[in-house]
Amino acid sequence: MQNWKQKRSHMQHYDLQAEIYDKQYVGEQNAKIETVLKNMKFGLNESVLDIGCGTGFLFPYLTKKVGFIVGVELSSKELQEAKKRIRKTHNILLVRADADNLPFRDHSFDKGFMISILQNMPEPKKTILEMKRVNKLEASFAVTGLKKKFTSEKFCESLKNAQLEIVMFDDDEQLKGYIVVCVNG
């Protein structure tokens, strides 16, 4: 029950922030995404899952590089903002769902993204394992973690404990978070 209270609190916070979120975080989010994209390759037939998609910062970067994108978000107001961003896009589906209980079959996606979500989750390990479950074996994941919530050791340890192989780690001093690309082992 405590976990849901924490999630509901974050959801309410992001519902209130949705209309101004882009203005507040555009620089930070875009820097994280650009760092990740330098370290991942994409195919036109691939499917991508963006867990905690927020207002959809990632979508413009990927719409022409992959076949299909699914954005998952718990905040209905953030999803409304994301919907505005994808108005003329046909390969993106938005789903309101809990990141710890995704409504997808095992091994459904080729790539996964969790940008700026883990610090809001009551049990980050559970969220990582859920991402791993819905992505294919050998899938690449991009994950970020807020520095004030995780030490670099704890952050990497949580990924390794989920049997993910870290292939890129970035601790850019200019950013508030760690940036990791890992592979589902």
Molecular structure report:
- By secondary structure, this protein is an alpha/beta fold.
- It has a single domain, classed as Vaccinia Virus protein VP39 (Rossmann fold), CATH 3.40.50.150.
- Helix content is 38%, strand content 26%.
- CA radius of gyration is 15 Å
Q: Helix count?
A: 5
State the CATH architecture: 3-Layer(aba) Sandwich
- DSSP E strands, number: 7
Our estimate of the beta-strand percent is: 25-35%
Overall, the morphology is: globular
Give the overall pLDDT as a whole number: 91
Number of domains: 1
Can you tell me the CATH class?
Answer: Alpha Beta
- SSE succession: HEHEHEEHEHEE
Helix content: 25-40%
State the major sheet. 7 strands, mixed
Look at the helices and sheets and give the structural class. Answer: alpha/beta
Uncertain stretches of 5 or more adjacent residues: none
Strand order of the largest sheet: 3-2-1-4-5-7-6
Q: N- to C-terminal separation?
A: 32 Å
- What's the CATH H-level superfamily name? Vaccinia Virus protein VP39
CATH topology term: Rossmann fold
